[in-house]
From TrEMBL:
Domain ABC transporter, chain residue ranges per copy: 2-217
GO MF annotations in UniProt: ATP binding; ATP hydrolysis activity; transmembrane transporter activity
Function, in words: Part of the ABC transporter FtsEX involved in cellular division. Important for assembly or stability of the septal ring.
Predominant localisation class: membrane
Subcellular location: Cell inner membrane; Cell membrane
Assembly and oligomerization: Homodimer. Forms a membrane-associated complex with FtsX.
Entries under InterPro entries matching the protein: AAA+_ATPase (IPR003593), ABC_transporter-like_ATP-bd (IPR003439), ABC_transporter-like_CS (IPR017871), ABC_transpr_LolD-like (IPR015854), Cell_div_FtsE (IPR005286), MacB-like_ATP-bd (IPR017911), P-loop_NTPase (IPR027417)
This protein's name: Cell division ATP-binding protein FtsE
Annotated SUPFAM superfamilies: P-loop containing nucleoside triphosphate hydrolases (SSF52540)
Length: 219
């Protein structure tokens, strides 16, 4: 679904922070992206999401060379990739319901066509009693789940999550992991960037491990 070939990345005139990355994220796959802080996990996720261009190498997304995509092609491709940012990026003046519904509203969909889907998804992530609450009154774990619901509302083929358990206690981290696995069973490819070893020990899954700018893969 997404393929990297000899991808390298540097910021400005700095050293290459990622080099010679060659790997594939397959449809319906589940994997952790790991490595110490500063290893390049967030940078790699941003390239997967086409928010950051590599300085060398080739990225192929859904069969198309990312370098040749036109700006007008991007929204349709990004819609198939759900992203949960480390800092959530929820809008403070909107309720949980409005935040989760936003991607559909932006696309001009009629609210009647999605209202129940939004409510069902918010219940699925365990926020059924927080529908009308703004982010300011949500706990870190609740914001995390709202951000996950927003990433999923448009039924992406692939979900990218950046340190999704970074702000939650271990029981909730396990719950979130189960949520991601359930999502994966329904056919969505999942990439979880994390440096939480305890979390990764809970499931047998492919690991993409970043260190010294390079990637090792453990299938
Ligand atoms: N916008 C940026 N400009 C310059 N350097 C950056 C930028 N973002 C990240 N870096 C550098 O790239 C390296 C990888 O960072 P990052 O992708 O955030 O790693 P991780 O998510 O694994 O902690 C770090 O050395 C970081 O300082
Ligand atoms: Mg990071």
């Amino acid at each position: 679904m997404i393929r990297f070939e000899n991808v390298g990345l540097r910021y400005d005139m700095g050293p290459e922070v990622l080099r010679d990355l060659t790997f594939e994220i397959r449809a319906r796959s589940f994997q952790f992206l790991t490595g110490p802080s500063g290893a390049g996990k967030t940078s790699l996720l941003r390239m997967l999401f086409l928010a950051l261009r590599p300085t060398r190498g080739t990225i192929t997304v859904l069969g198309r060379d990312a370098a040749t995509l036109k700006r007008t092609d991007l929204p349709a491709i990004r819609r198939r990739i759900g992203v949960v940012f480390q800092d959530f990026r929820l809008l403070d003046h909107m309720t949980t319901y409005e935040n989760v519904a936003l991607p559909l509203r932006v696309r001009g969909k009629d609210e009647a066509s999605y209202r129940q889907d939004v409510i069902d998804l918010i219940r699925w992530v365990g926020l059924g009693d927080r529908l009308d609450a703004p982010p300011l009154v949500l706990s870190g774990g609740e914001k995390q789940r709202a951000a996950i619901a927003r990433a999923l509302i448009d039924q992406p083929d692939i979900l990218l999550a950046d340190e999704p358990t970074g702000n939650v206690d271990p029981p909730l981290a396990r719950r979130l992991l189960r949520l991601f696995m359930e999502l994966n069973r329904t056919g969505t490819a999942v990439v979880i960037a994390t440096h939480d070893l305890a979390l990764m020990e809970q499931v047998e899954a492919r690991r993409l491990v970043l260190g010294d700018g390079r990637l090792d893969i453990y299938d």
